[in-house]
Amino acid sequence: MKNLEEIISEIRPVDRQVMEEAWKCWDSLCKPLRGLGWLEEVLVQIAGICGTSCPHPDRRAVVIMGADNGVVKEGVTQTDSSVTIQVLENMGDRLSTACVMCGLAGCELIPVNIGSLTDGKHPRIQNRVVRHGTGNIAEGPAMSREECIQAILTGADVVCGLKKEGYDLIVTGEMGIGNTTTSSACAAVLFDQDVETVTGRGAGLSTEGLERKIRTIKKAIEINQPDKNDAVDVISKIGGLDIAGMVGCYLGAACCRMPILIDGFISAISAYLAGMLCETAKEYMICTHCSAEPASRLVVERLGMKAPLQADMHLGEGTGAIMALSLIDQALNVYYHLTTWDGANVEAYTHQV
Description:
The protein is α/β, with parallel strands linked by helices. About 50% of the residues lie in helices and about 10% in strands.
């Protein structure tokens, strides 16, 4: 396994020349110029990532980073930690929401246990445990700095392994009871926001539960004093293993020149942290949707991206990003099958100033 510095050093900008070629292909097609908006933009980005103006990202993997969070002890969730590994087991049996959606989207879901309290039993679960659950961030750091880096490297290794297996595109996802608490804590620190502004009800907290969650996050930040300019420090003190694993997924995808889709709030926070470690890695990220979590729109804005889907989704598991694959498939469909201006005997549109 490569170390973090080696992975980052191998990340190169996407191919701008190929992107120009892809734009010329779009503009040769019989339709209003740039009329498909984001669909055209995302295909051009995928072309630049893959290094060809004729990309075929046909084999897709949804990588679910599963981990437990010690902060659950503070009563910040509706369910207990046993749900994390059970959902991973359900993913092994292809029973979860994301699995059902994968069937229609032509994806394979890969459940990765990077830090649940117990090992997964299903043979489809990749047990890549860095530690069995994090520490309670209301009492101290989530993990050591070394464990955080190990989790990042694990995520990168999983993605690079999928590249070797022939996968063309990665969708990020997570499963971890308590991870909207850790993500909200990260958002408050990274963006200098009041905790109340960036904290939502997660998977269905009561008003009393939300207030308890806010108090817990404030306590965690006060106790751990994370350095907002140091991504690893933020993750290791108030984050989670699922977040660290997804950070690694983004870096690994950029290193292997694969497009990688950002899911919702937790996935987007991980993307932002990955961008702190390597700004160029953001060129390989595709933002897909803005979730119903309060800070989701803020994170997308800070990433400098835009989300095509605004559907108030907040389920996790990569579901928003899987949904966006239907848009990408339509972009590919039109790009490869629409006739040209000449083929349609229509005078070509020109760009107007």
